[in-house]
């Protein structure tokens, strides 16, 4: 999660890489409680998140999205 | 001494080490939030137990029979297996992961699902995909691009292996507000 980009930056990187028809959708908030269900997060970092992230953001610390795009056709 | 996560190679090692160290995935709690009941019914229980994704890229990929699909960061194979069912035996589903134990689990799960004849799992890095240019119709991934220290390089590699007109369907996390620095530099928060 620490390496996640802002949605706008993600879309810009795709465009700069050469992708076209970039679409971002299926937005779903991710909470600290949900993050705690992944074994990759230690108990310590989950506790750190609860302590350092403002309580009003605990239900939405990140957003799960689907990003679609395509490589241009040969004719562009 | 804590690692300085500003160093990109250390980020990669932190991620590889974290995924190699875990002994289970998010299980049905995570999988049930992401996949439909019909999709879960298509999957071996072990693959579901190892669910670590954040979305459902296969659902949005609109895969067609006969297509070649690459699943970057395939883990224990859950999305690769779903993709293999969509592309069928006339297609090919390729899983790519940097953790050998994950690829071994994925192979076992694909065999249990009965899709192993048109599924393969390779060990490799999204920043250096071990596939030829223009060899793939669709690239999917699930909660993986955020793990890349060099995201632009990974995207360039994805573009390279895609055929003209080829498409991507990536499930990932985005953040609109910066995480506190204590978290942004925590190894566990990078891998999770």
Task: List its traits.
heterodimer; A: 76 residues; alpha+beta; 2 strands; 33% helix; elongated; B: 192 residues; alpha/beta; Rossmann fold
Helix-strand layout with pairing:
The complex is a heterodimer of chains A (76) and B (192).
Chain A: H1 7-17, E1 20-30, H2 32-35, H3 43-52, E2 62-70
Antiparallel strand pairs in A: 1-2
Chain B: H1 8-21, H2 27-34, H3 37-41, H4 45-49, H5 57-61, E1 68-72, H6 78-87, E2 92-97, H7 100-113, E3 119-123, E4 136-142, H8 151-161, E5 162-174, H9 181-184, H10 187-191
Parallel strand pairs in B: 1-2, 1-4, 2-3, 4-5
Any overview of this molecule?
The complex is a heterodimer of chains A (76) and B (192). Chain A has helices at residues 7-17, 32-35, 43-52, and strands spanning 20-30, 62-70. Chain A is α+β, with helices and mostly antiparallel strands. The longest helix of chain A has 11 residues, at 7-17. Chain A is elongated. In chain B, 55% of the residues are buried. Chain B has a single domain (8-191), classed as Rossmann fold, CATH 3.40.50. In chain B, helix 8 (151-161) links the parallel strand 4 and strand 5. In chain B, 42% of the residues lie in helices and 19% in strands. Chains A and B meet through helix 1, strand 1, helix 3 and strand 2 of A and helix 1, helix 2, helix 8, strand 5 and helix 9 of B. Strand 2 (62-70) of chain A pairs antiparallel with strand 5 of chain B.
Largest interface: A-B, 48 and 58 residues
Radius of gyration of chain A: 16 Å
Query: Could you list the spans of chain A in which at least 5 consecutive residues all have pLDDT below 50?
Result: none
Helix and strand element order of chain B: HHHHHEHEHEEHEHH
Unreliable residue stretches of chain B? none
Class from helix and strand fractions of chain B: alpha/beta
Instruction: Output the radius of gyration of chain B.
Output: 16 Å
Structural class based on helices, strands and sheet pairing of chain A: alpha+beta
Largest sheet: spatial strand order of chain A: 1-2
CATH superfamily of chain B: Vaccinia Virus protein VP39
Q: How many structural domains are formed by the residues of chain B?
A: 1
Strand content of chain A: 25-35%
């Amino acid at each position: 999660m620490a390496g996640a980009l802002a949605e706008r930056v993600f879309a810009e990187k795709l465009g700069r890489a050469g992708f076209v028809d970039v679409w971002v959708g299926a937005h779903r908030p991710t909470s600290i409680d949900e993050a705690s269900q992944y074994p990759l997060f230690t108990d310590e970092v989950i506790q750190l998140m609860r302590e350092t992230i403002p309580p009003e953001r605990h239900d939405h610390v990140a957003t799960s999205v689907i990003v679609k795009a395509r490589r241009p056709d040969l004719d562009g | 001494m804590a690692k300085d996560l500003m160093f990109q190679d250390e980020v990669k090692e932190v991620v590889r080490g974290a995924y190699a160290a875990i002994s289970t995935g998010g299980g049905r709690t995570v999988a049930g939030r992401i996949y439909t009941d019909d999709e879960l019914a298509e999957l071996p229980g072990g693959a579901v137990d190892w669910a670590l994704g954040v979305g459902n890229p296969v659902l949005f990929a609109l895969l067609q029979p006969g297509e070649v699909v690459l699943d970057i960061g395939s883990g224990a194979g859950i999305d690769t297996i779903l993709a293999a069912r969509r592309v069928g035996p006339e297609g090919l589903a390729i899983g790519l992961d940097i953790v050998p134990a994950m690829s071994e689990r994925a192979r076992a799960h694909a065999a249990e699902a009965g899709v192993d004849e048109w599924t393969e799992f390779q060990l490799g890095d999204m920043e250096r995909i071990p596939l030829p240019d223009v060899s793939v119709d669709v690239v999917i991934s699930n909660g993986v691009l955020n793990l890349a220290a060099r995201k632009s390089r990974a995207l360039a590699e994805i573009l390279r292996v895609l055929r003209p007109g080829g498409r991507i369907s990536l499930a990932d996390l985005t953040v609109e507000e910066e995480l506190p620095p204590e978290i942004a530099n925590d190894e566990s928060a990078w891998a999770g």
